[in-house]
Amino acid sequence: MRRLADWMKSIGPGRLINISLAAGIVLSLVFVHAEFTRGLNSRRAEIRQAMDTQAIALDGTLAAISGRVERLREWTRHALLAPPADTPQLNAFLDGVAQAGADEVPMLDRVGPADANPLDGPVPAALLALPDRALARHEGLSRPDRTHWRVEAATAVALAQQLALDVRTQPGLGRGYFIATSGLVAVAPWRSADNAQGLMAGIFERSAYRLSTLAANPTGRALWTETPTPPPQGAAGDEAPAQPLPTVAAPIDDQGRFLGVVAFDLDPALLALPTADAAGAGAVLLLGSDDRLLSAAGTPPADLFQQGRPTPVGLAAVMGKTAATAEHAGYLITTRPLTNAPWRLVHVAPRAALTWSLVMHTAGSMAGFSSVLLAVVLLFNMVVRRMVRSQERSAAAEREARAATEQALAELRAAHDELDFLNREKTRFFSLISHDLRGPFNVLLGMTKELADYGTRMAPADVADFAASVHQSAVTAHTLLDNLLNWSRVQMSGTPFSPSVMPLGEVVTAAIHDLGPTADAKGIRILDASGDRHILADRTMVLAILRNLLANAIKFSHPNQGVQVTSRALGDRLEIAVADRGIGMDPEQLDQLYRREAQDSRPGTLGEVGTGLGLTLVRDLVARHGGVLALDSQPGVGTTVSFTVPLAAAPR
């Protein structure tokens, strides 16, 4: 150190500054090169990671859709073996097909009475057919004998309902079709603005049908196609056509005989791509096949595309067959094929824009490096900076101590508020239970007293009536005490929480079975549309939640109405909903439920009574799963109660 100090004194301060500046320049050049290389590799890695994330999300949804199509194909094969349902609407439809003119299109959109028409649900469906006189116009179409024709028509009606259910429950589906070689077409959803003649004019020329025949697809595998869509009316001839409509289709055969195809048009929103801003201005993210562009985020560069249309070497040359990154015509091209569809993601970024953004980033980094260089030249600033840093550390320590104190006080206040709330809840429920238990036990005491005093002289019918009243009071008291016991265990953490992976459908089926007698007594049908997903939850708690929600739905539904259980995925959680079409609630009643205000339980549509404790138990059990309870209701329309639980993958 002494020799270094003597050497620095010998060369003088001026030369020392020059040497320091020269060393700083050399180090700056090395730093610029290293930073530029690191930035380029980092941007490429960011692009690949973003594309992998987008591809995995798309592949997951496409795999679910492909699975739906395969299950629907197997369902149709089994349905063709069952005897057809004989309904007046179906008979009239078949007679209309035989009698219609060659240019008419018979249509069936009702197969039951007005209050029980499965084709007129939340997603309406319809069945269309080519008349017998028009069948010969279409090559490859033929109609079987009347027995098999009736079986196909009845199967198509049931299949239309399945299509409607899949369109409603599976995200990403736009419209479902069943196109048969007998001239039958099932469509869901069927909209009032749809034109039957226009649909039937081109339905048998769609690629999803033509490419599914035995000649074009001898292996019978599911197909992904892109159906061209016509340009908007009034568009100029040199304008880009509308993007093609992606479709997934699966052929249906019966002992080697091609019967038709089940297909779904995908919702264009499914293929919408995020903005490709990872590589700076001018970057474009594309999705398509070798010769068709399905979706684009940004405007494709003119040197690779002409007015949005791929050039002969444009899309095919740009989109590689494997995941790779390469340069092409001054652009950095990154491709990522999808696993479950013959499409690929393509990221196109101008090399000049990427380089400029890295230069600006490096220049910013150089500013920091220059500051360090100046600090080396101006050595005397080090003492001042050390003093400042010491003061800042002291101030930071003081701020942290103050923040820790404030945090502790806030936690104490929160704990106090929670204890106060629990104490109020305890008082409220003890008051509620004491009031509601008095009624059933007064009935029990009065009825049993009457039976003890006059039972030998009463008519058998009167004795039976008294016994029914005693039983109903006992059931009411038992239900109240059971809910109270469950709620108190949850509040005192006495109920063990044991989550496990389980199929949701099994728990829903058990809950429907438990509430079956109650629903049958009012003529209410419970529809299970929860799907085949798996959840990570405590089975006993989820069963208790569903039983209470179904009991409320039955209680507030009018006789002969329906209750539906559905589910949908929300990220890593599953939303389960119980919906009825009963009397509903007004905003004031909903607000009371959200604020947990004490109130008497409302009687049901047939005078059923309760305590209001069931919803409190449901709210606490949902909270144990980290979920959210939501209510949506309108007077006279009905109520939908939903809650969320963790979503899980099916065990292998």
Automatic annotation (TrEMBL):
This is histidine kinase. Residues 387-425 form a coiled coil. PANTHER family: SENSOR HISTIDINE KINASE RCSC (PTHR43711:SF26), TWO-COMPONENT HISTIDINE KINASE (PTHR43711). Residues 432-649 form the Histidine kinase domain. Its EC number is 2.7.13.3. It holds the Pfam family HATPase_c. InterPro entries: HATPase_C_sf, HATPase_dom, His_kinase_dom, HisK_dim/P_dom, HisK_dim/P_sf, Sensor_HK_Regulatory, Sig_transdc_His_kin-like_C. It catalyses: ATP + protein L-histidine = ADP + protein N-phospho-L-histidine. It is an enzyme of class 2 (transferase). SMART domains: HATPase_c, HisKA. CDD domains: HATPase, HisKA. Keywords: Coiled coil, Kinase, Membrane, Phosphoprotein, Transferase, Transmembrane, Transmembrane helix, Two-component regulatory system. The lineage of its organism: Bacteria, Pseudomonadati, Pseudomonadota, Alphaproteobacteria, Rhodospirillales. The keyword Phosphoprotein applies. Residues 221-245 are annotated as: Disordered. The chain crosses the membrane at residues 358-384. GO terms for molecular function: phosphorelay sensor kinase activity.
